[in-house]
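Now for one record.
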Amino acid sequence: MTLEEVSGCNTTDRKMETVSQALEELLVAAQRQNCLTVGVYESAKLMNVDPDNVVLCILATDEEDENDVALQIHFTLIQAFCCDFDINILRVSGMKRLAQVLGEPLADSNVSESKDLHCILVTNPHVDHLKLNEVGSYCKESRCNNQWVPSLSLRER
């Protein structure tokens, strides 16, 4: 590895950590302002009724979800809809951390009321504007690098 490659990796890691932190802060702010739609079906219904109000779509999975064919079909349809309406899409891994950020019980816990966190929409363009811009810029940069659906890993703390 050259020095440029090593420093490039550090820069990329820092960028990912910064965007990850911005996403977490954005989700907390949007939740506080009641600007989140959580769940695959709820998100699909909202995008069908009011797609112009959606500014970010988060598709969250972990390794065990990768083989869920029904979920992957839903994701494909949601991604196509987001592309049609120019909605930023972000694939996120780290469902446990996502549940922690949103204050939700974990799906594997014995709570019957755990929400479907596989799809989350941020629905207000004015929610924590700086964090939304940071996440949106990451999505745009990724698209410029031919990564149409950028991915991000939320790390447990």
User: Anything to note?
Assistant: The first helix runs from residue 3 to 32. The two ends are 30 Å apart (CA to CA). The CA atoms of residues 32 and 74 lie 27 Å apart. The chain has a mean pLDDT of 84.
